[in-house]
Structures are given as C-alpha cells and as structure tokens.
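#random but structural
TW: two for the price of one
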Amino acid sequence: MNNYIEIYINNKFNEIPKDEISYINNLLPFYLNIKNNNLANLFAYYHYKLNYLFSFMNDKLSSNNHFNAHESRGLINIINNIENIAKELKNTEYILILIHTIQFAFF
C-alpha cells in the first residue's frame, strides 16, 4: 500500500470518537478479510453508525413520522464519508465499490 493511502486510512480511523470504538467490536467479524486493521475498524464503525441511524429513523417513522435534523445530517455525513473513502481507495489494493439503488415502497 502506498504511503498516502496508509496515512489517509489512519487519519480517517483517528476521526472515530474514542467513546464509540467499543461499539464496533461485534461488527469486526464482517471485515476479517480486510488486511488493514484500521480500514476494517473504519468499515465496522460506519456499519455501526448506519445501523444506529436507520434504527433511529425507523423508530421515528413508526412513532411520529418526523425525522430529526441532527440524525439526518449524521446519515448524510456518513454517506459522504463512505463515498469519499471509495474515491480515495480507487486504483489501490483496496477497492470499495458502492452500488447505488433506489427502492420505492407504495402503501
């Protein structure tokens, strides 16, 4: 791995709030095939955050059909971070391919 990518991954990993690192341990087994431990931890962290935010939004949908701005901005931020990481990892030994799909539900 080139030095720039290693520094980039380490910097992104260091952005994870220290009080949230313990939450990702249960998700790390999904990322065992990733050679870089910081990258595996970063993916596990985003996995945790997405699960939390989707769960929060599903709860809000079933209670009052109103989403909070803070959590909505958090979701947008996580999605943007994942997209930026995918761009940085392009043409490296770590390739992250994002598949964008839209599903519509009719009630």
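TW: number two ↓
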Amino acid sequence: MEWTHEQKSAVWNKAAVVGTNDPKVYRQDQCGAWIKWSEHGKRDSQYGWEIDHITPKSRGGGSRVLSGPTEKTTDPSTDG
C-alpha cells in the first residue's frame, strides 16, 4: 500500500522523540528500536520502518510504527 505524506506523518508522530536527536529524522518506536524518517518501507535498513494495523481499520483499529530488523538499538546520536 502507498501511504500519503500525511498518513506517514501521523504515524511517525506516535514514535518517541529521544534526547537531542532531530525528531524530524530519528525517533524510537514502541519497542525501543530506532527509526529514520527517510527509511520508511525499507525492511533491510538499520533504521527501516513500516506502518501496520494491530486491529483492522474496518474494526476501529489505528496505525502503528512497525520497524525493520529487531536487533537495532543503537542511538544514532552516538554513531555506533
């Protein structure tokens, strides 16, 4: 599915702003994984993320951030 900029922004804004990281570039998802705005839809990226629905929208569900590789926990502000 193709997401509009507004839809991506609405979901992005649900992710946490952490420390001095630019919130327009990096955030943390609900599981603590770091995500990067420009990496949306890139499953193999270190900071990749996608949009998913826990409950189908037709049944009142909302969108959430679903990040890529689960082993990523490195704060991008530390370069490592």
